[in-house]
Amino acid sequence: MTIPIASPVLARDDDSIYQALSVLDRPVFVVRDDRGVAVTTDPDAARGLRVLASAPALRPEALGDSEFRKAHGVRYAYHAGAMANGIASAALVTAMARAGLLASFGAGGVLPARIDDALATIRREAPGKPFACNVIHSPSEPALEWSIVEACLRHEVRCVEASAFMDLTPHIVRYRLAGLHRDPSGRVVSRNRLIAKVSRGEVAELFLRPAPAALVRGLREAGEITAEQAELAASIPMADDITGEADSGGHTDRRPLVVLLPSLLALRDRIRRECGYAHRVRVGAAGGIGTPAAAVAAFTMGAAYVVTGSINHASVEAAQSEAAKRLLTAAGVADTVMAPSSDMFELGVDVQVLQRGTMFASRARRLYDTYRAYSGVDAIPAAERAEIEQRILQRGFDEVWADCVQYFSARDPEQIERAAGNPKRRMALIFRWYLGRSSGWAMSAAPERAADYQIWCGPAMGAFNEWVAGTYLAAPGHRHVTELAAQIMRGTAFASRVGQLRAAGVRLPSRCSTYIPVPLTGGA
């Protein structure tokens, strides 16, 4: 049924229909009277008319799993995920926490002293408010993973977002078990909540099951956990929440969400039956969540919550340069590409980055291909070596190696020790210098290295830019992280009701079918 044109109580024109659909805290009715089909939010006006379809009131706060909101103490089933190198900054996390929303500090790649400062700042500026800290798996730098967990325990951070894990490590297991105890009723309680971001079923299973007995035993013998905590470990899963990460920025397997999410939900249910957990692990959706339409799809498939990443990279509070944010706000859905990652370079793991406006991806791929082809820098042919030094590194190999020695001597001396007498390892560190510095050049807007900016980004960024084109959110200065959260969730509630009406056979005018963000009175 097509809805034509308007009256004060019964909306018939496009603008009036849109306004009726936008009143989210009242039900909406599609009715027929002697003038045709109309829309109203007034139950009294609908009574006595033929009701063709209806959708109940749906506030953004009601979307997703209420247990997620309760467990984390947040208003929305929404999580602003971590962006490494502190791009998901203390300011970003604090703004979200003050608004009663969950965000993760991007601790990956950040030196321990800065992590300490950031966590102290968040706790001071948003006392008692919800927040998380990212713990990124660092197989080539285990000391970094250890230092993040140490900082979280020291600052009594009650939630971490574990990402890029391929296997469980003693560090992440220690964090989870260190908060275990029994409450007065005898129920097992974990003070330390864990959100695991995964893109594969075999990794999800590690977090859906209890901590491995061997790791628990090792932690107990080392005095890292108590005997009671070791005993209780077998009664709970490693994670409270599993985030299915689809086609996201940064580390990603680019799995389609419509395949990944149902698979993880089925796996969750099977393991719960096997283990007999009293509570089920919640499963959320990440990757490609940049518009209300994407969030509606995730919630409809059963996601307990949604996670945004790329769209927050261009937010006012993100610790990213204005030059990089301008590139992000100009990105389209096809302007991303996969490139070798710095932290898992030797393993051949890729990250998704912005392609438009930078040559980082092609240059990083050239370095990885060279790493695969030769046993060390001395084996690289002279002409090829000169090209890499001049066009990509813009420094000699020896000079870059001196930087690596200085950097890792303060951060993780074992990296230099492992490279002694190992030319292949030394070459990897030299090439990782470029991959590591490239994100820093973007963050500092180094003008001489503009072509080398590494900017983590997924196609959600382009989708968001298309959605907000022509609205106040098209301007980078209006993209406050809490505003993005509120608009995405309000738009999701709007789109959910439109979907219910469509499922009942209602054909809405195109002008009325898409939520258009306008400044919200009272903020997020």
Q: What key phrases describe this protein's structure?
A:
524 residues, alpha/beta, 22 helices, 44% helix, globular
Structure explained in plain terms:
The chain is of the alpha/beta class. Helix content is 44%, strand content 14%. It is built from 22 helices and 16 strands. The strands form four sheets. An eight-stranded parallel beta barrel has the order 4-5-6-7-10-11-13-14, surrounded by seven helices. A hairpin with a 5-residue loop joins strand 8 and strand 9. The model is unreliable at 1-8 (pLDDT under 50).
In short:
It contains 22 helices and 16 strands. It is an alpha/beta fold and 524 residues long. Helix 6 (142-154) links the parallel strand 6 and strand 7 (159-163).
Based on the structure, what is the oligomeric state of the protein chains?
A: single chain
Helix content: 40-55%
Topology, number of strands: 16
What gyration radius follows from the Cα positions, in whole Å? 25 Å
The number of helical elements comes to 22
Q: Distance between termini? A: 35 Å
In terms of structural class, how would the helical and strand content be classed?
A: alpha/beta
Tell me the overall shape.
globular
Taking the sheet with the most strands, its summary is:
8 strands, parallel, barrel
Average of pLDDT: 94
Strand content: 5-15%
Uncertain residue ranges: 1-8
